[in-house]
Amino acid sequence: MKSGKCIGTLLALALLLPLGALAADNGQQHHEKFTLVDSVQVGNTLLQPGDYKAEWNGTGPNVQVEILHGKKTVATVPAQVIEKNQPSPYSDVIVKPNGNTKTIDEIDFANKKESLKLAQGQSSGM
What we know:
Elements: H1 2-26, E1 29-36, E2 40-42, E3 45-47, E4 50-57, E5 62-69, E6 72-83, E7 92-98, E8 101-108, E9 114-118, E10 124-125
Antiparallel strand pairs: 1-4, 2-3, 4-5, 5-6, 6-9, 6-10, 7-8, 8-9
């Protein structure tokens, strides 16, 4: 009788594991590092040169991106995930002039087909 309960429990777990994997894939968290060599504006936040990390959930196209410096979130901005035909050979931050400052337009990540196109003027600083 005990072995029947154990087998039933194992069978139930075996059936539930694929469902958990599907749920995790739908809410997939992404995090990629990038480096800024100049000060740039992200919404209302001025980011200084240094190493940063972009984090977002899901595959897009519309996502909310958190920009982290170390472990601290310094800005949150809406973005679009862009699928490229070829992986980017290196990480690159594409900026646009915006008056006296530069604004991040797009972030490409080394060896990834995904890029982030940041929405302009819609950021919350932390």
